[in-house]
Amino acid sequence: MALKIKTPIQMRFSDVDSFSHVSNVAQQVYFDLGKTDLFRELWLRCGELDLL
To answer: How far is CA 31 from CA 34, 37, 42, in A?
Structure first.
C-alpha cells in the first residue's frame, strides 16, 4: 500500500509568469516542500523524530 502525503501549497504571485505558467524554480520549491513533509511523516511513524 502506498503512503500518500498531501502538502497544501499556496502559489505566490512571483511563482507564475504573465501566461500563468509556473516557473521551474517554483516547481523545485514545491517538490522540496513535499519531500520535507514526506520525511517528517516517515520519521514520526518510525518514532525517531520528536517535534516540539
So the answer is: 5, 10, 16
Strand partners, 16: 22
- Read off φ and ψ for residue 51, nearest 5 degrees: -85, 150
How far is CA 24 from each of CA 11, 16, 30, 31, 36, rounded to the nearest angstrom? 13, 10, 10, 11, 19
Block residue for cell numbers 504571485: 13
C-alpha cell at 6: 498531501
Please give the grid coordinates belonging to residue 36.
520535507
| pLDDT, tens digit (0-9, with 9 covering 90-100), for 2-51 | 778 899 999 899 999 999 899 999 999 999 999 999 988 888 888 765 55
